[in-house]
Amino acid sequence: MVREKVKPVEQHQDQAKQLNQLILFNDDVNSFEFVIETLIDVCGHDPLQAEQCAWIAHYKGKCSVKEGSFTELKPLHDEMNKRGLTVIIAK
């Protein structure tokens, strides 16, 4: 009987490498309320998660608000950018 070689650890690492992050940066222009509303509307966050992300971005300068493939994150990036938030897609 021939056994199939399984490498679950490497598969998980490869999948993790494919994920990108949508990163929100702090600014002195937009209010907390606006940032929270945008995270709820655009990223589908619940109010508590959106508030936590806003505070993290405020205190640390940036916060990863969503993970996914580039094609999943690009429309979110574009909409948040259109609303005046500073965001990037990073690996």
Account of the 3D structure:
- It is a single chain.
- The model has no long low-confidence stretch (mean pLDDT 89).
- A three-stranded antiparallel beta sheet has the order 2-1-3.
- It has a single domain (19-90), classed as 2-Layer Sandwich (Ribosomal Protein L30, Chain: A), CATH 3.30.1390.10.
- Helix 2 (32-43) crosses helix 3.
- With 91 residues, the protein is an alpha+beta fold.
- Helices cover 55% and strands 19% of the residues.
Along the chain, the helix and strand elements come as HEHHEHE
Strand order of the largest sheet: 2-1-3
> How would you characterize the largest beta sheet?
3 strands, antiparallel
Kindly estimate the percentage of residues that lie in beta strands according to DSSP. 15-25%
- Number of contiguous helices: 4
Under CATH, the topology can be stated as Ribosomal Protein L30, Chain: A
What do the pLDDT scores average to?
A: 89
The SS-based structural class is: alpha+beta
> Could you say how many structural domains there are in total?
1
Uncertain ranges: none
CATH class: Alpha Beta
CATH fourth-tier homologous superfamily = Ribosomal protein L7/L12, C-terminal domain/Adaptor protein ClpS
How would you describe the shape?
globular
CATH architectural grouping:
2-Layer Sandwich
The radius of gyration is 17 Å
Terminal CA distance? 41 Å
Query: What share of the residues lie within helices?
Result: 40-55%
Note the main attributes of this structure:
91 residues; alpha+beta; Ribosomal Protein L30, Chain: A; three-stranded antiparallel β-sheet; 4 helices
